[in-house]
Design goal:
Blueprint lengths: L8 E2 H9 L1 H8 L8 H15 L3 E3 L2 E11 L4 E14 L2 E10 L8 H17 L5 E6 L4 E6 L2 H20 L17 H4 L1 H20 L1
Parallel strand pairs: 1-4, 5-6
Antiparallel strand pairs: 2-3, 3-4, 4-5, 6-7
Helix pairs in contact: 1-2, 1-4, 1-5, 4-5
């Protein structure tokens, strides 16, 4: 089922949601953003990748900054790099590559973002995209990602949850964890402060009930 234009969401929002639903809401609902060293360095890396010219290397054609779209999932975005590998005369296999500044994360956020790009490519080009890669600047090497049924299902669920949250306009309450300290909008989210304020309410109610 094709989505209405006003329900399309950014591919990057899926990664934000998989990392932290509240972060996703603060960025995509409340339009809050703050840059730190890590996000600035990552932004510069993406700009450098997108500014490079398209090229051919033997049986591989490289396209940068390609606009992506999926009417089925209601997604739009821009790919960092798409390699097209020649697998037969006039037959080219897309291979998306997403660039990340940091080390590989312990969650699935980057893989979900890359899988969303693959789903867009499959719809746009009417061809299968079985694999892609995440390039982490710290490691200076690729991590191959297979777009299996599990990852595709996680990606579709993330798209559904993000759209529901954005259309509902409700920002989730904070749940503090260690990864919060690395978030660029930590100072605006204030997970420790807000969580403490929320935790006082049950205590007050309990005190009232016992009087």
């Amino acid at each position: 089922m094709d989505r209405p234009e006003d329900e399309f969401i950014m591919i990057s929002s899926l990664a934000h949601y998989a990392y932290c639903p509240r972060r996703c809401a603060l960025i995509h609902i409340e339009q809050i953003w703050a840059e730190n060293y890590f996000t600035a360095d990552g932004r510069v890396m993406h700009e450098r990748v997108h500014s490079e010219d398209n090229e051919s290397r033997g049986s591989v054609r490289i396209s940068r900054g390609l606009p992506l779209r999926s009417s089925q999932l209601g997604l739009v975005g821009i790919a960092d790099v798409i390699e097209f590998h020649e697998i037969g005369p006039g037959n080219w296999q897309p291979f998306p590559i997403e660039y990340k500044r940091s080390l590989q994360k312990n969650n699935r956020s980057d893989a979900i973002q890359l899988c969303a790009q693959a789903i867009c490519l499959e719809e746009m080009l009417n061809t299968a995209v079985p694999q892609g890669a995440l390039f982490y600047g710290k490691m200076r090497r690729r991590t191959i990602i297979s777009f299996n049924d599990t990852l595709r299902q996680e990606t579709e669920i993330a798209a559904t949850m993000v759209r529901r949250m954005i259309l509902g306009g409700v920002t989730p309450k904070p749940e503090y964890s260690k990864q919060c300290e690395k978030c660029s909008i930590f100072g605006k989210c204030l997970p420790k402060t807000i969580q403490r304020k929320s935790s006082v309410i049950p205590y007050i109610r309990k005190m009232i009930d016992t009087e």
